[in-house]
Amino acid sequence: MKRSISGTLPSPNIMAAMGVRYSTYAFLLLSAILMFASSFQPRVAETVKITVTDVLSPVVQAISYPIMQVTEVATAVSNLTALREENLRLTIENEKLRQWYTQALFLQDENQNLKHLLNLQIDDRLSFVTGQVLTDTGLAYVKSILVLSGKSDGIGKGDAALSGDGLIGRVEKVGRNVSRVLLVNDVNSRVPVVISGTNYNAIMKGTNTEFPLLTHITENADVQIGTEIVTSGLGGVFPTGLPVGKVSLDDNGQYIVRLYTDFNKLNYVRLVQRPIDPNLILGDL
Amino acid sequence: MKTFVGLNDPSEIASRFFRFGIAVIVLAFLVVLNIVPYFLDGMTGIKPDLFLIALFYWATHRPSLVPLWATFIVGLIFDSFSGLPLGLSSFVFILIRKIVTSQRNVLLGQSHLVFWAAFSFVCLIMNAVKLGVFWLLAGYLPELENIVFSVLLTIAVFPSVIMLLILTHRYLPLSDGEG
């Protein structure tokens, strides 16, 4: 072992200890710089984050698969007891749906005839991709999820994200194989909506709680509790008519939205491609 | 001066490598468990911080298993997956590592109950710091209910995770200057 010169220099052990101490402060400083840099340059930070998730997503996906299977089996076993009641409920529901199906066929036919009469040209075919939810780690702080679909699947920034029940958010950042979806209840989320069956437009504003607020409602609007809320399509971010939730009132008398989606059961989501804004299509001139 | 018996023996080197490997794999598994969703009813946003438990245990008993650079990188991975400001988790983890390693002599040899109480205190501090820094950077406070439940869940699962870590610790080869 080397000795310090004439004992005037600190011994290697002390030097090593000082090195450890300094490197702790150096890493703390580096973390602090990164934090502030990501606040001032969020775009760069988001690119770094989505690249990291892109690289590590196969590992996380491989490990989450058995967890998902175990949870599904556990849920299935716990549901076995309620199977009889569930079967009865589904039989009644099926009867009702058959009646609705007949009615829907009639309405579809009528709708097509009316469109034909008006010579209405609407391309309402929306393409979508289904992706597995990769992580919900930050839900306590940031209401966003990672979905295993990215640029390689044709996903783009601003695409709407839906569960089986309704709208859940929009794609905020896209990686090659992973996308980050900002949920509608995040404090940074604003969704233009319309109260179904009326022309009352409103903005659904995320509050980081279970129930987003309904703001900027058309003046003197007669809003009925329990009425359905759908996307209005204003602003061109979301397609028109995506189901969102129902109108409700909070304890302060403010209008809130009871979302159709239960975020606890979000295993897979559908990413609907953003509608093409006719004003942004290149002309032939 | 310490001497290592049998380190020239390839089988002994392989055994040491294997035993260290198990500890690292358990640590990596806890990191990934922190990231993946559990799909449990009523548990959205509520998740135990398993890496924090491992960090606390190894920073006390074997700091070389959680080197600074690795702690920093795990923090960056957490931030990337969770959408938190980049560097926030790294900052908090390194801070916790610094506090715990500086108190190693006090923590080593304490009863399980005292060790658990010390962890609970550190867990509260960590979340308070994280919350404060997040508020400074984002300009708003997140939903406190989920964070409080996550902290309580982390403290509640501490003994069971510690048992797993103690098992891997027993399997680890002795190291120079560490327990």
General description of the model:
The complex is a heterodimer of chains A (285) and B (179). With 285 residues, chain A is α+β, with helices and mostly antiparallel strands. Chain A contains 3 helices and 12 strands, in the order H-H-H-E-E-E-E-E-E-E-E-E-E-E-E. Chain A has 2 domains: 44-118, no CATH class; 128-274, Thrombin, subunit H, CATH 2.40.10.340. Chain A has helices at 12-40, 42-79, 83-118, and strands at residues 128-135, 144-147, 160-162, 167-174, 179-183, 190-195, 201-205, 213-215, 228-231, 243-249, 255-259, 268-272. In chain A, helix 1 packs across helix 2. Chain A is globular, with a radius of gyration of 26 Å. Chain A starts with 11 loop residues before the first helix and ends in a 13-residue tail after the last strand. Residues 1-12 of chain A have low confidence and may be disordered. Chain B is mostly helical and 179 residues long. Helices cover 71% and strands 0% of the residues of chain B. Chain B has helices at residues 10-35, 50-61, 68-82, 88-102, 104-107, 112-138, 144-171. In chain B, helix 2 (50-61) packs parallel to helix 4 (88-102) and helix 6 (112-138) packs across helix 7. Chain B starts with 9 loop residues before the first helix and ends in an 8-residue tail after the last helix.
Index terms:
heterodimer; A: 285 residues; alpha+beta; Thrombin, subunit H; 2 domains; six-stranded antiparallel barrel; six-stranded antiparallel sheet; 3 helices; 22% strand; B: 179 residues; mainly alpha; 7 helices; 71% helix; globular
